[in-house]
């Protein structure tokens, strides 16, 4: 039969009577400043969805162009189309 030592029980530290109740109440009543949230400088750009009508032949061309990209860095169809639209806008500006 193995003999084991009893584990010491954890207990709260002894209450100290050094704390002055008046000083504690004064500190609580003094309070502190509240945290204020910074106002955003600009309004957030909200995401908007819409339906795009496209011919199947054009969609097939887009899928083919995406499939030729390397698999590791391949874009989704949405990313591909958005990039194409933004490139077109830059060229016209």
Describe the structure in brief.
It is built from three helices and no strands.
Please give a structural write-up.
The protein is mainly alpha-helical. It is built from 3 helices and no strands. The chain is elongated. 0% of the residues are buried.
- Give the overall pLDDT as a whole number: 84
Strand coverage percent: under 5%
The tally of helices reads: 3
Largest sheet: none
Low-confidence stretches: none
Straight-line N-to-C gap:
89 Å
Give the key terms.
0% strand, elongated
Lay out the secondary structure.
Elements: H1 21-30, H2 56-67, H3 77-92
């Amino acid at each position: 039969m193995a003999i084991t030592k009893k584990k010491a029980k954890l207990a709260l530290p002894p209450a100290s009577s050094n704390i002055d109740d008046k000083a504690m109440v004064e500190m609580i009543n003094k309070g502190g400043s509240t945290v204020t949230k910074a106002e955003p400088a600009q309004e957030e750009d909200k995401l908007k969805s819409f339906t795009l009508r496209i011919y199947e032949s054009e969609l097939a061309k887009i899928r083919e162009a995406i499939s030729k990209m390397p698999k590791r860095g391949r874009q989704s169809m949405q990313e591909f189309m958005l990039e194409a639209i933004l490139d077109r806008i830059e060229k016209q500006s």
